[in-house]
Each structure stands twice: as structure tokens, then as C-alpha cells.
Amino acid sequence: MSSTAKQRSAWRDVPSEQWNDLRWQLSNLVRTTDELGALLGLPERELSAIRAQSQRFRWAISPYYFSLIDPSDPSDPICRMVVPSADEDTSEGEDDPLGEKRDQVAPGLTHRYPDRVLFVVTSFCSSYCRFCIRKRNWRHSDAARSRAEIDEAIAYLRAHEEVRDVLISGGDPLTLPHEQLEYILSQVRSVPHVELVRIGSREPVMLPMRFDDALLRLLDRHGPLWINTHFNHPRELTEEAARATEKLARLGIPLGNQTVLLAGVNDDLPTLKALFQGLLRIRVRPYYLYQADPVVGAMHLRTSVERGIELIEGLRGHTTGLAVPTFVVDAPGGGGKIPVGPEYVVERRDGAIVLRNYAGETFVYKDPTMTAKSPRKRALPLIPTAAERDGE
Ligand code: SF4
Predict the structure, then answer these.
(1) Residue nearest to atom 1 of ligand 1 (CA)
(2) Peptide bond before 107: cis, by omega within 30 degrees of 0?
(3) Out of 31, 51, 58, 116, which one is annotated catalytic?
(4) Which of 99, 123, 270, 273 could form a disulfide with 333 if both were Cys (CB 3.0 to 4.6 A apart)?
(5) Is the pLDDT at 284 greater than 80, yes or no?
(6) Residue 127 covered by a domain
(7) pTM of the model
(8) Backbone angle region of 224, left / alpha / beta, with phi > 0 → left and psi within -120 to 50 → alpha
(9) Is residue 129 annotated as part of the catalytic site, yes or no?
(10) Which CATH number do you get for residue 175?
(11) 337, 349, 356, 377: which is the annotated catalytic residue?
């Protein structure tokens, strides 16, 4: 963890009181190419490419998050996540790779799975990630922003008793003014059949000073809540971030982390291992590792699925299971998350399966559901036998 990033940064002379003040951070966002040029020493050729991209994709970076960049490293992973680049200049990729718009049933509300909904309540973030799957919202927001739009979404929830789980997302919902957040949480909580309220937020990563006493009291009033956050690199595990996650954990809010696998950012084993082990140290459970979706302007950040499987193989058994997230691919067009991973079943035989462990050793495991004497023989045909596979 590093808390010295500020001391090394262009903001080294800003007093801590200001640095730790949310309003100061938000009113000093880095958002012009001239500032970028000065802070990173970028050549004019690159700056003009960024200027051109700025018309297409929004960008802004909080001084806190910017301070994590090493300006002397041209391949800096933090820089790659938030600083626009000429690589975004492509028409490849999709606006809405998960087909969220297609299943939108009310402002901001996507209802695809039987018992849960996604509720997008803002398109604002304190810093904008180049790999974001909701870039489309940066231009034409689908979010429920006005009271009337929120009320329309809540009316849908009330009318659909099958919905028991609401994921409040954005943009970043924890950037909203308290009054707006209070209204949204109280309205969602007032729907009797909603049992689970989750918030997706990258603020513990981007702007941990956001978690002041007033916000913590607000969240506490509407518990139980679950927060999914989004750390992608071990350098994001700063002392400030650790203080934010500790405050949330002390409120009894379970914290899960969703990492996106990104080329040139975290697609190597030492980086991912340090990230996942470090997350556990700050009370956050690595939950999903996502294959990066084919989002327009972010194709250069994608790796192969095979690479993700290799990385999970390098983690499983080599560190605590709590530090190994599930690697998932979001199926195109809204097919949902599909877990993919290394194959540990080497062979299927009648009454047994042959397994291999993390070190490559094999073991014959007698499978009770497949023994000849078992009355449930073949009642649960979870795994086809080799003969079945071969069509015999
Ligand atoms: S914080 Fe989340 S919603 Fe905002 S730009 Fe990053 S990935 Fe997208």
C-alpha cells in the first residue's frame, strides 16, 4: 500500500485537509488536455489524438487517483485505465455489449433475470475508466435522474413481486448528492418484496475521501446493504482506500470486488496475486474476475479468454481460496455471466473420476452418485462419461 503517492505528485504542496476534502477533489478534477500534457509530459502528437477522442468519450480524473500514476512510466497501468489514448480511435466494439438497453423496462431499470434488476441512477463518475461498459451513458444517459424517473422505476418494482434483488449502479451512485441517494435508497427499501439491495461503486478506489461520517450514517440508515467495488491493480490499495473499506466493513456492509482483466494493466500473475491478496487485507473479498467486454474504444485493453483461464490456474491452490475470484465471461447480447476456468477433471470412469490438483498430481476419486449399488445411480448426470461424450 502506498500513501506517499501524493508526496511524489504535482499536488505535493496541497495541505492534507484540502486533499482529503471531497469538494476540493471534485473541483480540481483533471479534465483538459493542457493539464494532461503538463502533468504527464505528453508530446503534442498524442495530445491532439486525445483532443479528438475527447469529443467522443468523456474523461476526467480526480487528483487523488491521478497521483497514483507514475508519469515516468510510459506503460503505467493506472494511466492506461483512465487517461484517453489514440488507441480508442476505432469503430470496433459495441456501445452496449451486454444488451442492457434492450431489457430496459423503466428509466434506468434493466430487468433481465427473473428475480433481480439493475438500477442505473447516474452517469457521473469522479474519474472515467476507459474500459467502462456504460460509455453510452456518458452521451445519452439511460439513468433515472429526476424524481419522476425514479418514481417510475420504483412503480415498476412495486408491481413486480418476483424482484427480490436490486443492484444500484451507474455511473457511480456514491457520487450522488446525499439528498438524492437518500431518496433512492428509501424508495427501493420501501418495496416490501425487495430483500437485497446492492450498490456498485468505484469510489473506494477513485475517491476514498468520499466516505465521510455523513455518507456512512446515510448508508447505515438503509442497511442491510452490500457493496461491490472495483479494484483492478494493487497500486490502488492505498492507505486511504483501506480506511474507506474499513469504515464500510465496520458498518457491517459486506464488500465484494469485481476486477476486469485488462491487457497491460493486470494480465500477469504477480499483479493479480498481489491485488487479490491485498484486497483480503483491506477486508474486501475478490468476487469476480471479468473478461473485458468488447466495448467501443476499449478493444486494445482486452486479453484472450485463454489468458484469464491460465491466470486462474496460477492462483487456484497457490494461494488461499478466498483470494481466487470466479472468472466470468459476459455472454454477448445479454446471455449472462458464464463462469470459465481450468479443467480439473482429467477423466470420467464408471464409478470414479480422475482429478488433478493444482500441482498437476492426479487422484482417482470414487464418486458416490455413480456407484453401481447406489439407488441414485445416474440420477444426477452432471458429468457425461467418456463413453457418452464419444457417442457410444
Ligand atoms: S467508475 Fe464504473 S461506471 Fe464509472 S467509468 Fe469507471 S467503470 Fe464506468
Answers:
(1) 202
(2) no
(3) 116
(4) 99
(5) yes
(6) yes
(7) 0.91
(8) beta
(9) yes
(10) 3.20.20.70
(11) 337
User: How many angstroms separate the CA atoms of 367 and 354, rounded?
Assistant: 10
Domain assignment of residue 180, yes or no: yes
Residues with CB under 6 A from ligand 1: 125, 128-129, 132, 134, 170-172, 202
Query: Is the same domain home to 331 and 368?
Result: no
pLDDT surpassing 50 at residue 391? no
**Number of structural domains the chain divides into:** 3
Ligand 1 centroid from CA 67, angstroms: 18
In a domain, residue 95? The reply is no
Q: Which three cell numbers stand for residue 237?
A: 490499495
CA of 39 to the centre of ligand 1 (A): 23
Q: Which of 166, 187, 183, 253 is nearest to 216 (CA)?
A: 253
Tell me the residue range of the domain where 300 lies: 104-339
Distance 27 CA to ligand 1 centre (A): 19
pLDDT at 120 over 70: yes
Catalytic residue status for 330: yes
Q: Is residue 94 part of a domain?
A: no
Is residue 132 annotated as a catalytic residue, yes or no? yes
175 and 266 part of one domain:
yes
Q: How far is the CA of 131 from the centre of ligand 1 (A)?
A: 8
- The answer to whether 76 is a known catalytic residue is no
Please, are residues 337 and 325 in contact by the beta-carbon 8 Å criterion? no
β-pair partners for 336:
331
Please give the mean pLDDT across all residues of the chain: 92
Task: Give burial (CB, 10 Å; 0-12/13-18/19+) of 92.
Answer: exposed
* pLDDT at 81 exceeding the cut of 90: yes
112 among known catalytic residues? yes
| Catalytic residue list contains 102 | no
Answer yes or no: do 208 and 262 share one domain.
yes
Atom 6, ligand 1: residue with shortest CA distance: 129
Residues 324, 365, single domain; the answer is no
Based on the domain organization, do 260 and 366 belong to the same domain? no
